[in-house]
Every structure is written in structure tokens, then in C-alpha cells.
Design a protein that fits this description.
about 160 residues, mainly alpha
């Protein structure tokens, strides 16, 4: 009985979260997968290969890892805000543009982390990331944001 109540409570909470984010779809799942892979590869580059760009000696540092997690959390908050904007103005493209932008950034960071570890990257993967980056840039231009600060950022090698 208690187990069912706990499961129901967890289901209600996650259902409400999914609804707040504009529904749970392949884009959100992919974003969370990219974020997890980026964090894991960043930690691996630092812990195993000692090639993090976030520390002086390239080794694992808890502060750098924590900063990476905080940045990912804020990225999700931006997606939440974008989803709420979509709800208010009756569109579906603001959240999608935010997700595509963060996917491109996470993808670039994953490639950078893999490169730090000496992993050869298949051309198909680099091409897919390039396409995501172009879509994100077009979405930025279409929204008239004018803020190109994140353009060209490839991540920090340790969770972002």
C-alpha cells in the first residue's frame, strides 16, 4: 500500500514536470542523454586522462564538476522558461529552438571531450553536430536575439 502511494506520488511529480517542460518528447530525452554523456566524458577526460581544460593540471576537481552540473541545471531552466513562453504565446518553436541550441552545445562539448581522450570522431557524427549548430544559429537569427555569446563555445572539458 505504501509502495503504491510512493510510486503514485513520484509519477504525479514527474508528470507535472514533463507538462511544465512542454511535454516529454524525443528532444527532451535526447537533451538529457547528451547532458549525461557530456558530463561523463568530461569527468573521464579529467579523472583518467588528466586533460581537463578547467584545472591547471588537467585533473579532476570537484568544483569544476559542480560548476558543470549547475550550468546544466540552468540550461534546463532556460528550456523550462522557453516552454512557458510557448504556452503563453501559443507556439511550439521557442522551446524547440532552445533545446536545439543546447543540443548543439552539448554535442560540441562531447566531441571536445572525446578529442581530449584521443578518440577518433566519425565524420557522420561531426556532420550531425554541424547541422544542429546551423539550426541553432538560424533559430537565434530568426528570434532576433542578437546574442551570439555562446556561438563557437565548445564546452569546458568537464561537464559542459
Amino acid at each position: 500500500m505504501l509502495k503504491n502511494a510512493i510510486c503514485a506520488g513520484i509519477g504525479i511529480v514527474f508528470s507535472a514536470l514533463a507538462q511544465a517542460f512542454g511535454g516529454w518528447d524525443a528532444a527532451m530525452t535526447t537533451l538529457l542523454v547528451f547532458m549525461a554523456v557530456d558530463y561523463i566524458t568530461g569527468m573521464t577526460a579529467a579523472a583518467v586522462f588528466h586533460r581537463s581544460k578547467k584545472t591547471g593540471d588537467g585533473t579532476l576537481e570537484s568544483r569544476a564538476g559542480w560548476k558543470g552540473l549547475v550550468k546544466k541545471g540552468v540550461s534546463l531552466l532556460v528550456v523550462l522558461v522557453a516552454a512557458r513562453l510557448d504556452a503563453v504565446i501559443g507556439t511550439e518553436f521557442v522551446r524547440d529552438a532552445a533545446v536545439i541550441g543546447f543540443l548543439a552545445n552539448e554535442g560540441l562539448s562531447i566531441l571536445e571531450n572525446a578529442g581530449l581522450m584521443g578518440v577518433p570522431i566519425p565524420r557522420a557524427v561531426t556532420s550531425a553536430i554541424h547541422v544542429l549548430r546551423e539550426k541553432a544559429d538560424r533559430a537565434d537569427a530568426g528570434a532576433g536575439s542578437g546574442d551570439k555569446k555562446a556561438e563557437g563555445e565548445k564546452g569546458d572539458g568537464c561537464g559542459n
